[in-house]
Amino acid sequence: MIIVLKPDATKATADELLARIEALGLKPLYMPGAERVVLGAIGDERVIDQLHLESHPLVESVQRILAPYKLVSREIHPHDTIVDLGRAQIGGGHFTVIAGPCAVESRDQMQRTAGAVKLAGVLVLRGGAYKPRTSPYSFQGLGQEGLEILRDVAHELDMSCVTEVVEVGDVAVVEQYADAFQCGARNMQNFRLLRALGQSRKPVILKRGMAAKIEDLLLAAEYVLAEGNPNVILCERGIQTFETATRNTLDLNAVPLIKQKSHLPVMVDPSHGTGLRELVGPMAKAAAACGADGLLIEVHCDPEKALSDGRQSLDTKQFDVLMRELEPFARAAGKRLQ
Ligand code: PEP
Ligand code: MN
């Protein structure tokens, strides 16, 4: 429920109403604007009716939030959220590229790859230490040693870093090393993990599940926000369809649609979205053109030898060319490449 107060309502009125909202077991929100104060009441709307807020002399209007996701919805938060990711900001007028290998394989591989992406202008390094693989026989990641390498290499180059967390028990350790959590496609509806990430204040890059609807993604984000962490970045990474020519079908419809429905930043991962390195550049440009706030791109210093996702990884030269080609697309969409 969104409660718009009249211009002459004082802070004391707002506090009194917020206390009444909280006393009913609902989540109260205070959102002062330039002209009006807006309050939010999140929870069971049948309970909210008991407050009869429409008849309060200092309440101008009471509107239901129609979307099933409340905190994530633009109805309650009309302006774009900007998430602070250490060296970079995600959202607003920025177009941010996060790049690095699928998996942290060794210190040498990370130094070579990170050095190149940094030179190409990247501020945020990626690399998986815990890899959720389809086959139990595939490389599963270096675990904590991978986190150490990722953090050390990012520090040496004055970069921020992001990495995937695959289970609740790893949230605390990943939090010590990374500037943001990646919650992967396979865990998008791991609700206990989402709640645990909601208890942190570090940004969460939440990837769309490969069989998840856009509404499912927004409801997954709601779990994180409802626990108190507002720093969520949504990521379209392709969905499974009947098409087998590409690894996934990159659903770029999701970008402008989510922008309409939610205030959260939206990034696109054209590496997993296509599975083929020759499609990564064209789809990265398409993502910039349709209004994405940035990209997550897999880059490897030697893709032929990569322990995971080599086929979709750009080499460092290809990545450097792409960074230069992206700039006019970001600019045309009204964003600054960073
Ligand atoms: C990844 O980023 O390497 C990854 C595993 O992504 P996703 O969860 O989108 O499959
Ligand atoms: Mn990968």
Secondary-structure blueprint:
Elements lengths: L1 E4 L5 H13 L3 E6 L4 E6 L2 H4 L10 E5 L19 E3 L2 E3 L3 E7 L6 H13 L4 E3 L17 H13 L3 E5 L6 H7 L2 E4 L7 H9 L4 E4 L6 H13 L5 E5 L17 H8 L4 E3 L1 H5 L2 H13 L4 E5 L17 H17 L3 E2 L1
Parallel strand pairs: 7-8, 7-14, 7-15, 8-9, 9-10, 10-11, 11-12, 12-13, 13-14
Antiparallel strand pairs: 1-3, 1-4, 2-3, 5-6
The protein binds phosphoenolpyruvate (PEP) and manganese (II) ion (MN).
CATH architecture of the largest domain: Alpha-Beta Barrel
Number of distinct helices: 11
Major beta sheet, strand line-up: 7-8-9-10-11-12-13-14
Name the average pLDDT: 96
CATH superfamily of the largest domain: Aldolase class I
List each distinct ligand once.
phosphoenolpyruvate, manganese (II) ion
Number of domains: 2
Name of the top-level CATH class of the largest domain: Alpha Beta
Shape: elongated
The major beta sheet can be summarized as: 8 strands, parallel, barrel
| End-to-end CA span | 37 Å
Q: What are the low-pLDDT stretches, counting only 5+ consecutive residues below 50?
A: none
- CATH topology type of the largest domain: TIM Barrel
Structural class from helices and strands? alpha/beta
Strand % is 15-25%
Order of helices and strands: EHEEHEEEEHEHEHEHEHEHEHHEHE
